[in-house]
Amino acid sequence: MSGYASSSTAGREGHATFQKPIHKDSVKDFNCCCLTLNPCTNPVITPFGFLYDKRAILDYIRLMKKEAAKRLKEHEARRKEECSKPLPFYCVDPIYGREPRYICSIYVPKSRKDRFEIIENSVSCPMSGQSLKVRDLIDVHFARVYEPLSHLASKVRYMCAVTHEVLDNSVPMVVLRTSGNVVTRKCVTERIKKDMIDPTNGKALNEGDIIPLKLMKQN
Questions:
Q1: Residue 171 burial by CB count (10 A; 0-12/13-18/19+): exposed, middle or buried?
Q2: pLDDT in tens, 129-180
Q3: Which of 10, 92, 107, 172 is 20 to 30 A from 146, comparing alpha carbons?
Q4: Of all residues in the chain, what percent are helix, strand and coil, respectively (each to 5)?
Q5: Which Gene3D superfamilies does the record associate with it (predicted)?
Q6: Can you spell out the DSSP letters for 93-106?
Q7: 181 beta partners
Q8: Residue 166 and residue 159 in contact, taking contact as beta carbons nearer than 8 Å
Q9: d(C-alpha 137, C-alpha 47), whole Å
Q10: pTM
Q11: How far does CA 36 lie from the centroid of its chain?
């Protein structure tokens, strides 16, 4: 199977699907994708704070766009058919009085730009339900803990990119949009908020660039 579960098999294997919401009672590791429920190999985060594996979320967006394009095509076909039917209206003839006349309404197809915008705006984040576009995705970089025997460890550990505090689900984390680096909320409060500079690359930050990482929950 590929890196993410298909909608036909995901439910049987305990994975999230595009249609199946994730329950709020159990928490997966902070570096797990909200779609595959597996650790991300190429993590990206949305502006809403949800983490996805890049391949999985791009496939999801493509699928949603394909379905939106299909619905739009069907709608336009129905609209064109409806507009081809004559519609009655009444006019007053000076000799014969009020008589019905018939006209055909004109179907005006949407422009290529309008179609593109409709399809683009049809995709929403699977977790937040808010509009989501590919350009909204931010690459995330988890700093790995250096361990001489890490190749023998059963699980890779990560740390704050600034303070080097080891990360786990009990540590509140944020992603800095300007670099994609993951730091602890404590680091933001005690260091970054003072001058609003990303300490990993020296770029200026604003409040919107500090994105809290939301833990993903599962059934």
A1: middle
A2: 999 999 999 999 999 998 765 555 557 789 999 999 999 999 999 999 999 9
A3: 172
A4: 30, 25, 50
A5: Zinc/RING finger domain, C3HC4 (zinc finger)
A6: ETTTEEEEEEEEPP
A7: 141
A8: yes
A9: 7
A10: 0.71
A11: 14
Q: What six digits make up the tokens of 142?
A: 């988890």
Q: How far is CA 80 from CA 14, 66, 71, 87, 183, in A?
A: 44, 21, 14, 14, 54
The two tokens of residue 216 are: 């993903």
Q: Match 């597996």 to its residue by tokens.
A: 38
- Encoding tokens for residue 163? 């303070």
Tens digits of residue pLDDT in 41-74: 999 999 999 999 999 999 999 999 888 888 888 8
* Residue at 178: amino acid letter: T
- Supply 138's token pair: 């931010």
What are 107's two structure tokens? 């179907």
